[in-house]
Amino acid sequence: MNNHNRDRGTIKWTSLMLPEHVEMIKKVWKEDQRVEKGILDEQKAVEIDFIMQRAMHDGLTVDIRIHNGFDYEEQRVKIKHIHKRERKISAVHWKSKEPITFQLEEISDITIV
Question: What was the pLDDT predicted at 80?
């Protein structure tokens, strides 16, 4: 007699979750793993400022690494204007041409593409 069918302890049940639910759960887990923003040293801040000025004046596309509160994200943009008093950057997304603004404090790294 075959006892494999009677062994109820080894039955694996598949979850009945929609892909949207899985994405939401992954976001919640990611928020639990917050990454603190590091402090920039003076040399890195000067380098970021130089690259931003060059990209703005020459119309270059840059990758900006931003700390969004709990993790880092990368944006590829063209810088249009730097507002020193308000400590903001006005930029345009390189593909969709949507306007984007960043706080200078959010930027952790920038590279010219």
Answer: 94
Q: What is the DSSP string of 53-82?
A: HHHHHHT-EEEEEEE-SSSEEEEEEEEEEE
Check pLDDT > 60 for residue 3: no
- With 70 as the cut, is the pLDDT of residue 91 above it? yes
68/1 Cα distance (integer angstroms):
61
Contacts of 56 (CB under 8 A, 6+ apart): 79, 80, 81, 82
**Residue 17 CA to chain centroid, in angstroms?**
26
C-alpha atoms less than 13 angstroms from C-alpha of 35 in its C-beta half-sphere: 11
Amino acid present at 96: S
Q: How many residues does the chain have?
A: 113
